[in-house]
Amino acid sequence: MILLRRLLGDVLRRQRQRQGRTLREVSSSARVSLGYLSEVERGQKEASSELLSAICDALDVPMSEVMREVSDDLSLAELAQSAASEATTAPMRPLLGTVTSVTSVTSTPDERITIKAPKKSAEAVDVVAA
Questions:
Q1: pLDDT tens per residue across span 58-115
Q2: Would you put residue 18 in left (φ > 0), alpha (ψ -120 to 50) or beta?
Q3: How far apart are CA 60 and CA 88, in angstroms?
Q4: How many other CB atoms sit within 10 Å of the CB of residue 103?
Q5: pLDDT tens, residue by residue, 21-34
């Protein structure tokens, strides 16, 4: 099962780390506790729309950009989940205009799947799969 809260947390963490900012800095600016922000980034807590707006404002990133990145990660996760469940090696249709293939899919015992796709940033995406 793909958890949206985990994908959202991963995107928020990447945005914060790209800026070289600490959890403390962002939590203070967003007026949310450091512990709660940490739980949101780790996908353990669902962020309300108000909280998400405050975090995006603190990161100076439009919420639409965050949600677009979550959508892209979700598409990759669905692609990987589909590939993992299919026994055949039939060619897959790309779900995103910029992604034409998945370069690798690895999993761990705690059901985290890492998907590496050819992207400009070459970042890996972690998702939870059933």
A1: 999 999 999 999 999 999 999 988 887 774 455 555 555 544 455 555 555 555 666 6
A2: alpha
A3: 44
A4: 11
A5: 999 999 999 999 99
| Residues in contact with 44: Cβ distance below 8 Å, sequence separation at least 6, in sequence order | 5, 9
Given a contact cutoff of 8 angstroms between Cβ atoms, the answer to whether 66 and 56 are in contact is yes
- Give the CA count within 13 Å in the CB-facing half-sphere of 15: 24
Residues in the chain: 130
Which of helix, strand or coil describes residue 58? helix
Residue type for position 126: D
Kindly provide the residue ranges of all beta strands, DSSP E only, lying in the chain, ordered along the sequence. 104-107, 112-116, 124-128
DSSP letter, residue 15? H
CA distance 57 to 101: 33
Residue 90 tokens, joined: 């039939």
